[in-house]
Amino acid sequence: MKIITNLKDLQQERQSLAKTAKSVGYVATMGYLHEGHQALMRHSKAENDITVLSIFVNPLQFGAGEDFETYPRDMERDQQIAEQEGIDIVFMPDASAMYPGDSTIKLQVTDRVDVLCGKSRPGHFDGVVTVLAKLFHLIQPDRAYFGLKDAQQVAVVQALVDDLNFPLEVVPVATVREADGLAKSSRNVYLSEQERQEAPVIQQALQQAKQLIANGENEAEKVIKHVKEFIISRTSGRIDYVEILSYPELKPVEDISERIIIAAAVFFEKARLIDNIVLEADGSRMDRF
Ligand code: AMP
Predict the structure, then answer these.
(1) What does the pLDDT look like over 230-286, one tens digit per residue?
(2) CA 150 – ligand 1 centroid, Å
(3) Would you say the CB of residue 173 lies under 6 angstroms from ligand 1?
(4) In DSSP terms, which residues pair with 245 in a beta bridge?
């Protein structure tokens, strides 16, 4: 496994891979790796000759007062996990390598961001697409793997690839969960013991929504109300949002009759947790675009 921190070294490495015409899969992370990240790595390993993993806590995608400084980091453990997973190249630049000076060009996401996390984290997705545009140029992957846990991110990255013609396939990967249903997340370490007990309620509430829809409820408003009440009555968390939108367009839905996302974000004392389910019109789960 090669560990690269320098952008020039990464570009050179990529050029030499091009000579042997190997397919490259790419997994972008902010580190503190867990089984969700490992699922992405395994998909990439199965479908490509070479897998590149990046570990970079991107300052551009954190807003003022968010957890950039305290975001959990453990580079040594991350490298061990990457090695175990058979990753070929780990790219872990520091912020000054990625952003050596003030930028002259800014990328701005103009659709799919006035809802969900885009609404509660203004500028977040601008930071995400900016770093990914750079990383896609550097790594030139054939396929890039993103978790559906961050389903809005998948939708925005697909738009980035379509709008700016990156020659790569975005591959969405199903959310990996703890045994009790809580979506795995680097931020789960922020939860108190009691909050950890309560947190699976988010997924339970989304499953209830799925059941309601399967039983014939098609009014989004009613389903949202049920999900909110379910979460409020069973956790100490504060709801940031519960929304039902078309997917991946992320447009408002009144009557459920197409592929939708039901997404929730809940603030706990030190962590804001997100989860979602994407349902096909017949209530089944979406696997791939
Ligand atoms: P992060 O390090 O949180 O930026 O996540 C890096 C990638 O891993 C993103 O594509 C996430 O959607 C994905 N990811 C994070 N948690 C999970 C999970 N529980 N299941 C599947 N993918 C995940």
Answers:
(1) 999 999 999 999 999 999 999 999 999 999 999 999 999 999 999 999 998 776 766
(2) 7
(3) yes
(4) 252, 261
Predicted local distance difference test score (pLDDT) of residue 92: 98
219: left (phi over 0), alpha (psi -120 to 50) or beta: beta
Please indicate whether residue 183, judged by its CB atom, sits closer than 6 Å to ligand 1.
Answer: yes
Q: Which atom of ligand 1 is nearest to the CA of 149?
A: 12
217-234 pLDDT tens trace: 999 999 999 999 999 999
CA angle 205–250–153, rounded 5-degree value: 80
Per-residue pLDDT reduced to its tens digit, 150-196: 999 999 999 999 999 999 999 999 999 999 999 999 999 999 999 99
Nearest to 170 by CA among 159, 158, 160: 158
The answer to whether the Cα torsion of 84, 86, 88, 94 is positive or negative is: negative
3-state secondary structure (DSSP) of residue 108: coil
Amino acid at 81: I
Complete domains list, the chain, with CATH: 2-173 (3.40.50.620), 186-279 (3.30.1300.10)
Report CA 169 to chain centroid distance, whole Å: 16
270 to 30, 73, 237: CA distances (angstroms): 18, 16, 10
What pTM, to 2 d.p., does this model score?
A: 0.96
Is 132 close to ligand 1, i.e. is its CB under 6 Å away? no
Amino acid at 253: V
Residue whose C-alpha is closest to residue 266's, from 216, 176, 203 = 203
Residues with active-site annotation: 37
The angle at the Cα of 8, spanning 4 to 13, to the nearest 5 degrees, equals 60
Of the chain, the end-to-end C-alpha distance in Å amounts to 32
The continuous run of DSSP H or E covering 50 comes out as: strand 50-55
